[in-house]
Design brief:
Elements lengths: L10 H9 L2 H11 L5 H8 L3 H13 L3 E8 L2 E7 L1 H4 L2 H15 L44 E2 L2 E2 L3
Helix pairs in contact: 2-3
Amino acid sequence: MPASGDPRPCSIADTLAIVGEKYSLLILREVCLGNGRFDRLVRNIGAPRDVLATRLKRLVGAGVLDKHAYSERPQRFEYRPTPAGLELEPILMTLMAWGDRHLREDDDRPMVIEHICGNELVPKITCATCGTELHHEDLTPHPQTPGWSVTGPTAT
């Protein structure tokens, strides 16, 4: 049984520990746009330089970004997404679409992403097995951690 007060074991919480801070997600946005040099990140994100450096170290350490030298004198680096980092891009697109729908007017969107098909990207999450779109009412959680149920810790 979980110790009293221990939070639910959760992959969402573990992921947020790495990318769940505003500047980390904005770094990912910029790197996925091809703006991986520090000066561009500072300009485009608006984060303080020390905060940006800390977030970059965390993302590199977690295997989300790779650091590549592009100049020896002076030594300068750019950041590129790893395969794990690229797996987060659909999440960024989904967050952007949510913000466009709920926080902006149609004519006030700061960016539109074009898909390879030539149309504007409208992300949807589908089941990899059956291909149907995700809807809350179609989901059934099955906790896998011993001592936990959907409602919380279980008594022994």
